[in-house]
Design goal:
Elements lengths: L8 E5 L2 E12 L20 E4 L1 E2 L2 E2 L11 E4 L8 E3 L20 E7 L3 E2 L16 E3 L1 H8 L9 E5 L14 E2 L1 H9 L4 E4 L14 H6 L16 E4 L10 E8 L7 E3 L1 E12 L2
Parallel strand pairs: 8-11, 10-12, 11-13, 13-14
Antiparallel strand pairs: 1-2, 2-17, 3-6, 4-5, 7-14, 7-16, 8-15, 9-10, 15-17
Length: 275
Amino acid sequence: MPRSPMKRIEVHHRGRCHHIDHREPLRLSARLNFADNPTNLYGVAPADSAPLSYGDAVASVRQGGACNAERISLVAHCHGTHTECIGHILPDAHNVADLQLEPFIAATLIRVAPQRADTTTESYNASASSEDWLITRSALDDALTPLSGDYLQALVIGTNAGSEFPASACAPYFSHQAMARIVELGVQHLLVDIPSIDRLYDGGRMDNHRCFWGLDVPDRRQTARRHASVTELIQVPTHAAAGHYFLTIQLPDLAGDALPSRPILFSFSTGKVTS
């Protein structure tokens, strides 16, 4: 018998019942097309796929094989939408797939315009250039001011920075003040449409990653932030309005500090206050 359609999803958050609209999800991931993948950060080889060969056979129906089976090659950090955990900057192994992600995470979506570094008093480390573009604390505060702070388990930031970044390009990144503000707000899951929250070429300091995971001050490490995640190279649909949503982050069950991911936003309506 055919399955009956799902009637309603209810999520209780901060004393309110939220009715999730699952019929029109907003997909934030950029599908990785192995035949045409323009995002190749740091000059790494493009992600690719090829039919599996075994003996004299090839697993490609088009090439006369009985079925299709492909071997794929990619670098999660460089080739598209990906989610990373604190293992990205620690010597010991931590796997993204082990993060205890709630099925529906209270999220806020904002849009900000990066600002030229030489036009703001906010800063980065010595690798920065005056011609760089920064996402500033001031821009974050301006975008968040009209919105309630009740949905900041996750913060989704759209900059309309584009998705093609040649090896020589310096994509926008966060000022130190902006990243400190994100941590101060208690954001556990940060999603951005840029390739890195740090400057792509910063001499390996990765100050913003360290700040986000509470590793910037060794004697005051915030162990609670070990469960936090960063998702980079998302694509925010142009029709997605700034405001509050619930977020699902779908991950493959593989080992690794970063994995290709499929974040999805859901709109909702609010029900009665619950006890």
